[in-house]
Design a protein that fits this description.
The structure holds two protein chains of two kinds. The longest helix of chain A has 30 residues. Chain A is mainly alpha-helical. Chain A is built from 14 helices and no strands. Chain A is globular. Chain A folds into two domains: 65 residues; 216 residues, MetI-like fold (Orthogonal Bundle), CATH 1.10.3720. In chain B, 69% of the residues lie in helices and 1% in strands. By secondary structure, chain B is mostly helical. Chain B has a two-stranded antiparallel ribbon with strand order 1-2. Classes of the chains: A mainly alpha, B mainly alpha. At the A-B interface, helix 1, helix 2, helix 5, helix 6 and helix 7 of A face helix 1, helix 2, helix 3, helix 5 and helix 6 of B. Chain B: Its main location: membrane. Chain B: This is Carbohydrate ABC transporter membrane protein 1 (CUT1 family). Chain B: It is a multi-pass membrane protein. Chain B: Belongs to the binding-protein-dependent transport system permease family.
């Protein structure tokens, strides 16, 4: 992951580094460590015994223990984790399947008034989701979809669709017009153009959009809490209930928090360059 | 809702050629070109689904906001006119929630933008282990928000065995002051936990902006004798403007809706309930559907008003179109 950052640094920066610049490097390390420290503390605490975790002053070098993890897994977190995975992965796939053609219609061969349509998508993100909470709850109650993971899949799909359309549109807009025209002159059909010309350019964009949709769905709490119960409870909901029902055990809370965050952490670390690209959305240049 | 959306869209696209006007298709003109529907077809599934799932519920919310409806007393359900709105507006808790939402969003977005800018500038330079530092920096963004809130509440802020008071004791000895962080500074406690989570997000966007800077121009300016500050002030900052706007916009969209941290750290107590929490409580705990809906309508109207003003006056983001 570090190599790719360095490669984006232009050759022009190869100047002799003064002491001032070196110390800025140290400052960067310091800032990074400060931001990382709470997380490090969470990891450390999760591997301590409950007795060692709850000491004041803190014991950094207490013997390691798996007590927290054992207690967490004894509480049966697997069904919620599977629910979360289902909701996040399926909704992310649906988002991409829906957003890609939409992005195409908004950039390569734009429909009339495409800026309005694009803005409509984005404006739905301004709607505080909480304002739709009651009707969706009542609807679920009427049709018997309460405590059903597929309702969350639908909701997460629509929740992330605008951002994905927006991101993918800007990635598609990067496909050079000349290439598209050349393909047209050569008589390439829509599918060939998509596969041979557009796909290679937008693969990083799709990956970035998918990653961000996955993170936001995995993290969602409010709707999951209101719309699910025992059967379809997601990992974040499980986490809140778990802490209140069992009292506070610090090592266990930290172990639980870490396990629930793990999929997002792994995905995010593995694809952090995509994350940078995706968040900038190529929208601004 | 659709009418208000149009207002927003009109404001934002006013500078773009061909933009503006309403989202509805102009009759006759739409049929001018053949193949218009072939162009629209790929768009329709996403558009239809979005309209159904986001706009329809909101219509129901508007309708419900005029009904006096508490699920505990289903027999007493009746049309109430503006009663719910009057109740919300005169409810000190609701007013407080509006104030909390505004101050919390503003303070979190500004502080995390500033911290994000500083760390992006630091990370844009070349130094040993830059990739590692970037990984360290983005970690907070990758911790599930509820988990992050639990971490801050129990492992860091806790007055008995939290890390912060523990560090005070470690440094200052056993007589060190022990602070009840959440009890004494509830707003700041919630705010800093959210800032920790969102600073990396801001940093990532701004870093992407910095790395897209045309460096030959910067180098030329340096050779011409421009100081680092001059380069930052007159070249880097203007280039970063649209990235700062994007970061601020996306940050605001997500922070204004924050529920997880408020719910976990204070359960809305100690004057930290924001609007999402207030609505959640009115609906989920008090089961007052009418009141919750009225509050929801108010939130949406306020959000759209603020967004429209912001996009019209401040943002340059949507004014230039590249195709």
């Amino acid at each position: 992951m570090s190599a790719t950052t360095a490669s984006t640094a232009p050759a022009l920066r190869h100047r002799k580094r003064s002491w001032g610049e070196r110390s800025l490097g140290l400052v960067a390390w310091l800032v990074g460590l400060i931001f990382f420290f709470p997380f490090l503390w969470m990891v450390l605490t999760s591997f301590h015994s409950e007795a060692d975790a709850a000491t004041n002053p803190p014991s950094f070098f207490a013997p390691l223990s798996l007590e927290g993890y054992r207690d967490f897994f004894a509480a049966g977190p697997l069904p919620p984790l599977i629910n979360s995975a289902t909701a996040s992965i399926v909704s992310t796939l649906l988002v991409i399947v829906l957003a890609f053609p939409a992005a195409y219609a908004l950039s390569i061969r734009p429909v009339r008034k495409w800026t309005d349509v694009l803005f409509f998508f984005l404006s739905t993100k301004f709607l505080p989701v909480v304002a739709g909470l009651l009707p969706i709850y009542l609807f679920a109650q009427q049709v018997g979809l309460l405590d059903n993971i597929w309702l969350l899949v639908l909701f997460y799909t629509v929740m992330n669709l605008p951002i994905a359309v927006w991101m993918l549109r800007s990635f598609l807009a990067e496909v050079p017009v000349e290439m598209l025209e050349a393909a047209q002159v050569d008589g390439a059909g829509l599918l060939t153009t998509m596969r041979k010309i557009i796909a290679p350019v937008v693969t990083p964009g799709i990956a970035a959009a998918a990653l961000i949709c996955f993170i936001f769905s995995w993290n969602e709490l409010l709707f999951a809490r209101v719309l699910t119960a025992t059967v379809s409870e997601t990992a974040p909901v499980f986490l809140t209930g778990f802490v209140t029902s069992q009292g506070l055990f610090l090592a266990k809370v930290c172990a639980a928090s870490l396990v629930v965050s793990l999929p997002v952490l792994i995905a995010g670390f593995a694809a952090q360059d995509k994350l940078v690209q995706g968040l900038s959305m190529g929208a601004v240049r | 809702m659709s009418s208000t959306t149009t207002v927003t869209a009109r404001g934002a696209t006013s500078g773009a050629p061909g933009g503006g006007r309403s989202t509805g298709a102009a009759p006759g003109a739409a049929m001018r070109r053949t193949g218009e529907w072939a162009r629209r077809a790929p768009l329709l599934p996403a558009l239809v689904l979005t309209v159904i799932v986001t706009q329809l519920p909101f219509v129901v919310t508007i309708v419900t906001s005029f009904i006096s409806w508490n699920a505990y007393y289903p027999d007493r359900r009746h049309f109430a006119g503006l009663e719910n709105f009057q109740t919300v507006v005169s409810d000190p808790d609701a007013r407080k929630a509006i104030l909390v939402s505004v101050t919390l969003t503003l303070s979190v977005v500004l502080v995390s933008l500033l911290l994000g800018l500083v760390s992006a500038l630091l990370l844009d330079r070349k130094f040993l282990g830059r990739g590692i530092v970037r990984t360290l920096m983005i970690t907070p963004f990758l911790v599930v928000p509820v988990a992050a809130a639990l971490l801050w509440k129990h492992a860091l802020y806790n007055p008995e065995y939290g890390l912060f008071d523990g560090l005070l004791k470690l440094v200052l000895g056993s007589n060190a002051p022990q602070v009840d962080w959440i009890g004494q500074y509830p707003f700041a406690s919630v705010m800093f936990a959210i800032v920790w989570q969102w600073t990396p997000f801001m940093m990532l966007i701004l870093l992407a902006g910095l790395q897209s800077r045309p460096l030959d121009v910067v180098e030329a300016a340096r050779i011409d004798g421009a100081s680092s500050w001059q380069i930052f002030r007159h070249m880097t900052l203007p280039h970063l403007r649209s990235y700062i706007e994007l970061a601020g916009l996306l940050g605001t969209i997500y922070v204004v809706q924050n529920f997880d941290h408020v719910f976990t750290i204070t359960s809305g107590g100690l004057g930290t309930a924001n609007l999402p929490y207030y609505i959640y409580q009115t609906f989920y705990t008090a089961h007052d559907y009418g009141l919750a809906s009225a509050a929801g309508v108010i939130v949406v109207v306020l959000t759209i008003a603020v967004a429209t003003v912001a996009l019209r006056t401040v943002f340059s983001l949507f004014k230039e179109e590249n195709r």
